[in-house]
Amino acid sequence: IMYTGPHIVEDGLVFAIDAGSARSYPGSGTAVTDLAGTNNGTLTNGVAFSANNGGTWEFDGTDDYINIPSYTTHQSTTGTMEAWVNPDVISGNHYVFGAGGNTTFGSNRALRLLNGVWTYISYGSAGTQDWNDAGTATTGWAHVAIGWSGTTAYFYLNGVGTSQTLSGMITPQSNVFTIGVRPWDLGADWDGEIAAVKCYSTLLTAAEVLQNYNAQKSRFA
């Protein structure tokens, strides 16, 4: 159901948007259709479309983002979020996606690029459970994924994974899902391209994350 759909993992898929799918985005307008459910989104503040790599969205690093206003899957005890991204810069603070929206600690799940490293924003109390060195970032296209199950957080870069045990985790709050900014204050804008985002209600295995990476990597070579 995605750009090279037959090889994408579909079990547990609850959200999927892809700039390369005409059913998800026709190449113009602001409406983005969720291919896996009903969590449709809106391109906000001038997110641009490019036909490069089969179709991508371009974020200017200033105020662009995709808004999905009624999303709650991140509140489950297991799950996975992933995206194909191409940062224009790796310095500074830039969010790929985030789910939650509440401003208190322990309310969000998100992935950001902070000064050359990938950072997993988790859901521990008092902000102590952020995984601030999940992986090293470079410019160029990359497949990134975060997963969670119980007290274990997972990060994958181009199909290669690592994990970390985080104590004291709680269930996130609120129902905002944003792509290209922080969900709680719409800051730390993404500067670069994002082509596809998928979310699962299940924790994908390492083999399944690698399967999703391999299914679309030729598009971004």
Provide structural commentary.
- This protein is mainly beta.
- Helices cover 5% and strands 42% of the residues.
- The protein has one helix at 206-216; strands spanning 13-18, 31-32, 41-44, 48-50, 56-60, 65-68, 78-87, 93-100, 109-114, 117-121, 131-136, 142-149, 152-157, 160-165, 176-179, 191-200.
- The protein contains one helix and 16 strands.
- A hairpin with an 8-residue loop joins β8 and β9 (109-114).
- The longest helix is centred in the last third of the chain and has 11 residues, at 206-216.
Helical content stands at under 10%
| CA gyration radius, whole angstroms | 15 Å
Mean pLDDT: 92
Distance between the termini: 21 Å
- Number of β-strand runs: 16
Poorly predicted runs are 1-5
Strand content: 35-45%
Rough outline: globular
Number of helices: 1
State the major sheet: 8 strands, antiparallel
Structural class: mainly beta
The H-and-E topology, N to C, reads as: EEEEEEEEEEEEEEEEH
Short précis:
This protein is mainly β and 221 residues long. It is 5% helix and 42% strand.
List keywords for this structure.
eight-stranded antiparallel sheet, 221 residues
What is this structure's SSE topology?
Elements lengths: L12 E6 L12 E2 L8 E4 L3 E3 L5 E5 L4 E4 L9 E10 L5 E8 L8 E6 L2 E5 L9 E6 L5 E8 L2 E6 L2 E6 L10 E4 L11 E10 L5 H11 L5
Antiparallel strand pairs: 1-16, 2-3, 3-6, 4-5, 5-16, 6-15, 7-12, 7-16, 8-9, 8-15, 9-10, 10-11, 12-13, 13-14
